[in-house]
Amino acid sequence: MIELLAGGPAEIDWERVRADAPGLHALAMDICENGLREPIRLDPYGRIEDGVHRTLSLWLLGFKGDVPATRPSPTPTGYEEGAFWKLPHLPTITETIREAMLQSGPEEWENYWGWLTLKLDTASIIAGDPFLEWLHSRHPFRCGVLSMAPFSFYGWHTDGRRGVSINMLTDFTPGRHSSMFALPRDQSRSPGRFFELDYEPNRFYLFNNQIEHTVVNYEGNRFVFSIEFDEDRDTLTFAQLKREIEA
Length: 247
Hints:
The chain is α+β, with helices and mostly antiparallel strands. It folds into two domains: 2-70, Conserved hypothetical protein from pyrococcus furiosus pfu- 392566-001, ParB domain (Alpha-Beta Complex), CATH 3.90.1530; 80-246, q2cbj1_9rhob like domain (Jelly Rolls), CATH 2.60.120.620. Helices cover 28% and strands 28% of the residues. Strands 4-12-9-14-7-6-5 form a seven-stranded antiparallel β-sheet. The chain has a four-stranded antiparallel β-sheet with strand order 8-13-10-11, with no helix packed on it.
């Protein structure tokens, strides 16, 4: 089918088109004279949502240029802002975390919800970081480093207990990796849509654990510092904590 369409018509009997499909003929003549007045509208998957007849008219006319088309943004307005937020506060804990990892033994890395995790001493980590000290005084938390092996992934999920967390990708994480959030979807087999959180190393990110998400890691181990609050999803939400930090 694609090959047939790509080849285009060898010759068009416009009188027959006028007789069999007068509306299509009139549209083609209008485009020929005035150009395409409105772009073709596509859905998120690149399918024609509005403009099938205009597209057929262009094909009949043998149009070979780029067809003006519009496509919705990959993320609906406001949705991405509710999934993650890069905090304005610059961390001062990178070297402390690095030192804790270098001094740790294999036996200190434990399996925690499927993550190989090094639990850190919270008091030592927050000491000297004004933002973390302020945050802990309002919302007590524990913290650690989550390690992800090369060529591994953590499946799509929402957290059962956590409503919000704070993550920081360390700058000693080589290779490619991707954290993704799913857009709202039904549970059918139809394709879903997602958008990516592109971590800037050594920056804190507020992370909405109640939006479906996944992580994929390629070559190299991936190390992320993560904060887990004592409060659960019913008592501390992404929106609530974001408002507090912004205030």
